[in-house]
């Protein structure tokens, strides 16, 4: 499926749609499989799924980026033309912000980019006292009602994470706003910030400069100290130029994560062609550098996800873009079925190494759910008990599994009874994912905000050889994992539904598809 998997790649940069063509740039090491010598690689697509590679758009060829063309964003100007703002690491190893403009705006593929002589446009100076080694990853700019462009740049002072805001009338001359847009103590460096409006009235996306009625704002940071992407929902006060969170805040212990597994340095863009906001994220390897070097590549981009505000207003929801369904073939549908406690059911008829699986469960015996240990507030800790015998659950899927179940990755739900409600936890357990290769095999966990009394428990899983992307509760909780099976590969891979709970449950929906390969780099 969608892996832009050549040499070492990481952060998605500057996603946009221009003249009907989707563009993705990404951090790329043209000389090796591990991070280093970073340039902006560039690919284009008509459908977000099949991609055509182009030569790097930004290379390390000026004094302002000779030590790396680091992350940044694209902004579409009112004329419709794009402009890139990115972090260059200069001759002094300082992080400065540079512009790049298309050489030929009539080319929908935007192959050639010009770096104007006046770069850098924002830099650490003796006056602004900005820490020059923690000043990076400019956002897409938005146009204020006062006619000024604004963007934010990630920063820290001491251990306090900050989003510094800069303003400009002409996109060339920038000045710093009096206060950071947002800051928080003891959070470490905030990389790859993102600020965007979400509609309060449905799944449709809002254009990046939208403010006022009908939208809330999302602020996201990639936490360098924890290696996860966390967000807060709130309002952007465009008079004071501050972000005021109403739910969540950017913290190291935050539960408000885009994805509770591997997903970092992400970035959204507004897809005006169908009025949606699309999220891109980097999935790194779980293997060590030596393994990556012998394999010859590392890192990939997750399937792009549509992202919107849940109708509760309390959290975001994500779902693979609908275009991914073009790769589906050979649908297998199972009739409604009881899954007895302690049973395993093979889902045959699909290519289990590359599949899209949608399954929903109903639980007839909820009142017998185990009591929640209220001292356990971390779902990952609960998931680390493993997928062994439980009360209501664990139930879910064994993916990339060997026939004899010696090797598998378990993605599953467990339901607990708390004082006034049921608590649903989703886990992705990689501890049994490979018989031979030694790598980081964590177990990830997330709370899923669904009421199993009224709602079915749904799980969508995209499986692609070494990548398992799970969307629980119709996209309320997402977990992405990297696994490297040794037996459950290609034709040796199998797919099972399982219920290790004591009580029987019902599979109310089960549809699975083999997935064709996309055209990738
Ligand atoms: N990756 C880039 C930085 C960014 C980091 C360097 C996040 O700009 O902060 O490759 O993964």
Write the layout of secondary structure elements.
Blueprint: E1 7-18, E2 21-29, E3 39-45, E4 51-58, E5 69-76, E6 82-89, E7 95-102, E8 113-114, E9 135-136, E10 142-143, E11 149-157, E12 160-168, E13 174-176, E14 182-184, E15 190-199, E16 215-223, E17 228-237, E18 242-247, E19 264-271, E20 276-283, H1 289-295, E21 297-298, E22 300-301, E23 305-309, E24 316-320, E25 328-334, E26 337-339, E27 343-346, E28 354-362, E29 370-371, H2 379-383, E30 392-401, E31 409-417, E32 422-429, E33 443-448, E34 457-464, E35 467-472, E36 477-482, E37 494-499, E38 505-515
Parallel strand pairs: 1-21, 29-31
Antiparallel strand pairs: 1-2, 2-3, 3-4, 5-6, 6-7, 7-8, 9-11, 10-11, 11-12, 12-13, 12-14, 15-16, 16-17, 17-18, 19-20, 20-22, 20-23, 23-24, 25-38, 26-38, 27-37, 28-34, 28-38, 30-31, 30-37, 31-32, 32-33, 34-35, 35-36
The structure holds 2,5-dideoxy-2,5-imino-D-mannitol.
2,5-dideoxy-2,5-imino-D-mannitol binds next to strand 1, strand 5 and strand 15.
Family: Belongs to the glycosyl hydrolase 32 family.
Pfam families: Glyco_hydro_32C (PF08244), Glyco_hydro_32N (PF00251)
Keywords: Glycosidase, Hydrolase
Your description of this structure?
The chain has 521 residues and is an all-beta fold. The protein folds into two domains: 7-320, Glycosyl hydrolase domain, family 43 (Tachylectin-2, Chain A, 5 Propeller), CATH 2.115.10; 323-515, Exo-inulinase, domain 1 (Jelly Rolls). The protein has two helices and 38 strands. The protein has helices at residues 289-295, 379-383; strands at residues 7-18, 21-29, 39-45, 51-58, 69-76, 82-89, 95-102, 113-114, 135-136, 142-143, 149-157, 160-168, 174-176, 182-184, 190-199, 215-223, 228-237, 242-247, 264-271, 276-283, 297-298, 300-301, 305-309, 316-320, 328-334, 337-339, 343-346, 354-362, 370-371, 392-401, 409-417, 422-429, 443-448, 457-464, 467-472, 477-482, 494-499, 505-515. Strands 25, 26, 28, 34, 35, 36 and 38 form a seven-stranded antiparallel sheet that branches. Strands 27, 29, 30, 31, 32, 33 and 37 form a seven-stranded mixed sheet that branches. Strands 9, 10, 11, 12, 13 and 14 form a six-stranded antiparallel sheet that branches. β17 (228-237) and β18 form a beta hairpin. It is globular and about 70 Å long. The model is unreliable at 1-5 (pLDDT under 50).
């Amino acid at each position: 499926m969608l892996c832009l998997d050549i040499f070492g790649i990481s952060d998605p940069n500057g996603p946009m749609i221009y003249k009907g063509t989707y563009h993705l740039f990404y951090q790329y090491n043209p000389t090796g499989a591990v991070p280093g010598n970073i340039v902006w690689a560039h690919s284009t697509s008509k459908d977000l799924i099949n991609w055509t590679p182009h030569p790097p758009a930004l290379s390390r060829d000026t004094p302002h980026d000779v030590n790396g063309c680091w992350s940044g964003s694209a902004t579409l100007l009112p004329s419709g033309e794009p402009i890139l703002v990115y972090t260059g690491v200069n001759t002094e190893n300082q992080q400065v912000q540079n512009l790049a403009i298309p050489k030929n705006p009539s080319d929908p593929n935007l192959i050639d980019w010009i770096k104007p002589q006046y770069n850098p446009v924002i830099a650490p100076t003796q006056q602004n006292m900005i820490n020059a080694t923690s000043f990076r990853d400019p956002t897409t700019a938005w146009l204020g009602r006062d006619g000024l462009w604004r963007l934010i740049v990630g920063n820290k002072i001491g251990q306090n994470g900050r989003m510094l805001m800069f303003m400009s009338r002409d996109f060339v001359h920038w000045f710093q706003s009096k206060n950071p847009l947002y800051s928080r103590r003891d959070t470490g460096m905030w990389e790859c910030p993102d600020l965007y409006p979400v509609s309060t009235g449905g799944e449709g996306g809002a254009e990046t400069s939208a403010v006022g009625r009908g939208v809330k704002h999302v602020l996201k940071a990639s936490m360098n100290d924890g290696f996860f992407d966390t967000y807060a929902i709130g309002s952007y006060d465009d008079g004071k130029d501050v972000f005021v969170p109403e739910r969540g805040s950017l913290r190291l212990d935050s539960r408000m994560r885009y994805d509770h597994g591997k997903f970092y340095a992400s970035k959204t863009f507004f897809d005006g062609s169908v009025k949606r906001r699309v999220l891109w994220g980097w999935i790194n390897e779980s293997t060590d550098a030596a393994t990556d070097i012998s394999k010859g590549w590392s890192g990939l981009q997750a399937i792009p996800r549509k992202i919107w505000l849940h109708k509760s207003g309390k959290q975001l929801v994500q779902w693979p873009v609908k275009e991914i369904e073009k790769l589906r073939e050979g649908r297998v549908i199972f009739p409604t079925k009881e899954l007895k406690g302690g049973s395993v059911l093979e889902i045959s008829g699909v290519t289990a190494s590359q599949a899209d699986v949608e399954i929903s469960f109903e639980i007839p015996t909820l009142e017998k759910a185990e009591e929640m240990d209220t001292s356990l507030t971390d779902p990952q800790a609960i998931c680390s008990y493993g997928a062994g015998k439980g009360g209501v659950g664990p139930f879910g899927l064994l993916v990339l599994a060997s026939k004899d179940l010696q090797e598998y990755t378990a993605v599953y739900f467990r339901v607990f009874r708390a004082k006034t409600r049921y608590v649903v936890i989703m886990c992705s357990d990689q501890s049994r994912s490979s018989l031979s290769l030694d790598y980081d095999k964590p177990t990830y966990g997330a709370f899923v905000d669904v009421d199993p009394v009224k709602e079915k428990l749904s799980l969508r899983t995209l499986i692609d050889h070494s990548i398992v992307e799970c969307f629980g509760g119709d996209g309320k909780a997402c977990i992405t994992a990297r696994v490297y099976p040794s037996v459950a590969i290609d034709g040796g891979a199998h797919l099972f539904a399982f219920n290790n709970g004591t009580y029987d449950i019902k599979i109310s929906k089960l549809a699975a598809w083999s997935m064709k390969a996309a055209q990738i780099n």
